[in-house]
Design a protein that fits this description.
Helices cover 34% and strands 22% of the residues. The protein is an alpha/beta fold.
Length: 235
């Protein structure tokens, strides 16, 4: 574990990492295999593009401290670590034990010092104002609405004033009726998220889209990049 990460981490005060109403994935290497298959044969490489775009949107600088919430098997965190360098610090959390185990294996194979831990968005086990940047990719649709609100307020707490949050998620659930129904938490509406972000103390919302691709099954992804208000007294 990166020395800074060890310093930052504190044990969760509020129950075990597994206690969540979110939809946990615990597939480990099977997640990566499934993702590779979908991206190669169904999505035309759009998932790879999505990760690059997500990392670009944060405008990372060497030395920054970054949290990836719902990091899955750590693919984005590994990309992000290259950008913040050895002076930076990247932590990924996910409630799926197999996801975290797989993320550890991938990071170790690449000799990158990323701290992957089991954890949930609703109780982030870090002190206030710890991170410059927080990411959440393709995980908001795993959360029921009240958990989204709670999770965003936790993210606001652990971000430094002026810190950035980048969210990427499948486009509005109405645009993918049927597929969304398979997730018990339902899809995400970026419209709803924008309102929740304002409520949680974020401003300067930027939105971008990767529309559904014409000759692939890629369902379309929306991005939001928001800054935590730097004003005194904000959350
Ligand atoms: C579709 S995966 C996306 C993983 C990764 N961000 C990516 O882009 O590949 C969604 C992840 O959210 C995690 N998740 C579910 N509930 C969560 C919660 N309450 N807090 C944090 N992560 C959660 C799941 O275990 C799963 O690994």
């Amino acid at each position: 574990m990166h020395a800074f990460a060890r310093h930052l981490h504190r044990p969760s005060r509020k129950g075990s990492a597994q206690e969540t109403k979110g939809l946990i994935l615990n597939w480990g290497w099977r997640y990566d295999l499934g993702e590779w298959f979908c991206d190669t044969f169904l999505f035309g490489g759009k998932l790879r593009e999505l990760r690059r775009k997500t990392a670009n949107l944060a405008r990372l600088h060497p030395g920054e401290t970054v949290l990836d919430v719902g990091c899955g098997t750590g693919t984005l965190a590994i990309e992000v670590q290259k950008r913040v360098g050895t002076t930076g610090c990247v932590i990924g959390i996910d409630p799926g034990q197999e996801q975290i185990a797989r993320a550890h294996t991938k990071a170790a194979r690449r000799h990158v010092p990323i701290d992957f831990q089991m954890g949930v968005i609703e109780h982030l086990a870090f002190p206030d104002q710890t991170f410059d940047v927080v990411f959440s990719t393709l995980m908001m649709h795993h959360l029921p609405a009240p958990l989204k609100r709670q999770g965003l307020s936790e993210i606001a707490r652990v971000l430094k004033p002026g810190g950035r949050l980048v969210i990427a998620d499948f486009t509005h659930k109405a645009d993918r009726a049927g597929r969304a129904a398979r997730f018990r938490a339902g899809g995400s509406s970026m419209q709803d998220l924008a309102a929740l972000l304002k409520e949680a103390g974020f401003d300067h919302l930027e939105r971008e889209e990767m529309p559904p691709a014409r000759f692939s099954a890629f369902p379309g992804v929306s991005f939001v990049c928001a800054s935590k208000s730097a004003e005194e007294g904000s959350k």
